[in-house]
Amino acid sequence: MEYSSILSQQFNIKEEYAQNIITLLDDGNTIYRKEMHGSMDDQLIREFSDKLNYLRGLDKRREEIRGLIEAQEKLTDDINSALDKAQTLSELEDIYRPYKPKRKTRASVAKQRGLEPLALGIIKQEKGFNPTEYAEQFVDEEKEVPTAQDAINGAMDIIAEQLSDSAEIRKRLRVIFRNSGSVKSVAADEEQDSVYTNYYDYSEPVKKIAGHRVLALNRGEKEGFLKVSIDLDSEQPLGVINRALDKGTNPLCSDILKAAGEDAYTRLIFPSIEREIRSELTETADENAIKVFALNLKQLLMQPPVKGKTVLGLDPGYRTGCKVAVVDGTGKVLDTAVIYPTHSEQKIAQSKRKLLELIKKHNVDIISIGNGTASKETEMFAADAIKEADHTVYYMVVSEAGASVYSASKLAATELPELDLTLRSAVSIARRLQDPLAELVKIEPKAIGVGQYQHDMPQKRLGETLDGVVEDCVNSVGADLNTASPALLLRVSGLNSTVCKNIVAYREENGAFNSRAELKKVPKLGPKAFEQCAGFLRVPESRNPLDNTGVHPESYATAKELLKLVDYSDKEIKSAKFTDIAQRVKQSGTKKLAEKLGVGLPTLDDIVKELSKPGRDPRDEMPKPMLRSDVLDIKDLKEGMELKGTVRNVIDFGAFVDIGVHQDGLVHISQICDRYIKHPSEVLKVGDIVNVKILSVDVKKNRISLTMKG
Known about the structure:
Layout: H1 3-10, H2 15-26, H3 42-71, H4 77-85, H5 89-96, H6 106-112, H7 116-124, H8 131-135, H9 148-164, H10 167-180, E1 182-187, E2 201-205, H11 211-222, E3 226-231, H12 235-245, H13 251-301, E4 311-315, E5 322-327, E6 333-339, H14 345-362, E7 366-370, H15 375-385, E8 394-398, H16 403-407, H17 410-415, H18 421-434, H19 436-440, H20 459-477, E9 479-480, H21 486-489, H22 497-510, H23 527-533, E10 537-538, H24 556-565, H25 570-575, H26 581-588, H27 590-597, H28 601-612, E11 642-651, E12 654-658, E13 665-668, E14 689-698, E15 703-707
Parallel strand pairs: 4-7, 7-8, 9-10, 13-15
Antiparallel strand pairs: 1-2, 1-3, 4-5, 5-6, 11-12, 11-14, 12-13, 14-15
Helix pairs in contact: 1-2, 3-5, 6-9, 7-9, 9-13, 10-12, 10-13, 11-13, 12-13, 13-20
């Protein structure tokens, strides 16, 4: 199979680029040489890699099946041709189905009883053939065929299985199922109330059903609340089967064949294709949900850091109190405490004094509040307390998803050995406001909680995709070689846990790295690993300004030659200030310079972008997070009220927006904008600051409906 040709068409890229990507992937290279693949982004390249693996798996299975049929001495030119033309795994398996060793079936029992000639006679329908008379020859008590009718029944079983094994019939019926079938659900017990009541009597066409509804139905079925099936009028599929059988020459065989066709459909084909269609729907829904999860995760990780601010983290709680941790601008823990803002009036007063004392002592700039249990009460307490602070203090509610997972991990015990498990969560909540990426890389991506139905998805596939997103984000931002934690380093391309530990050990033993080149002295970090990781590691302390950019060491000579070509003096180069480089390159002619330097335009553009802002953080270009100084209660909300909010999660049917009350409001997809959109992610992303209007509030159910229209 010509993979580059197929993939170039599927991804709408030049075949040369497709071949380059295949070569780079096979050689284990990080794909930073953009001119080799037409500047495809990381996500597309991962999809390309998945599709390449699928095609290779397809070819491997094709040859396995060819070998298995050949071993039975049944391989013909027609079968060979059909195998070559098959484009999906299901098509291959259909071809193999008649030759696949089967467990004991009604048809295999009938064959053992010698009834295959009778079945073939009925299928041929030759003139003058009387199936009932011919069946008399097969009556044999010893073979458990006591009557002619039993013989015919056995022959019908053989015919039914033959129809079920027909690749052509299955191919046609799949199309009918997809185009005309409906997904249907009913209540397993109508008396039982559940979150699935909307699906107690539900039907939607297979070709229209949305992925999130497929996953909801699957979960409802798994939890025992729903019975889910594919509903299809049998007339169309039976017509396909009858046409495949009916040669119209012998009416004595027609009824037998019709009955065998109905049996084949209801007993064998329908249940099998129903499973396939549901499996297909689930697979598509999983893939889409994983994509949405990945997109949300990327946007969450790429939230702008709140740099250089002293942050007080609050991990809310009722009975055991609210854990407090103060961290400085670098994330170093300055102080910890436990307060009780939800207990007696006396405890609340003590808690306020303690909070104000910590704010004053450490000159706290922002309070970061976890959004879990008792979050609302803690937010109201903090908003009230900061009114009495000796300087302006803001607060922000952050997602605490995964904070408890982190605090119980070996990594947290290594980083914060002196702190109690519960206080580590407060530190994490403070740090994830300062630098979401650096803190969230310490947590398994699945635990970060910006998806839907993540526990129902194929966990291996979800894990691989989300790990890829984290790696892409870290590579995009870069990691400071002298301050990055082992958890952050582990997410850099080309580094494994052993090498990460060795980098930290080298740093502790020899002091800060003075250059990227010094990485080569780290034990077990070979030339291949250096080639992979060097462009993503920054060394701000280096004398070479390029070491604090995203320019890869293999492009250093090009970058230095470029600086000379656009007339930077040696003195200017030493000062490492190239703010006007883009202007100089434009004046000299970008294309002409690229040709002189022998590089592609994408590489030249990247070098210029990096040199114009050494140490640049792409997250700084994003909208800043919204900080608050006052709090609303859900009871304060009124229909028509206009508010500002932060998008917390984007899902198939809308987006959840934090508007400063404990419960996030839902903007349904129909309320996002005036034009038609297929998915909310076309307009919104996690972290966006948006203007919303209250549509309705249900205080009892804690539900807030919002609109962004108008």
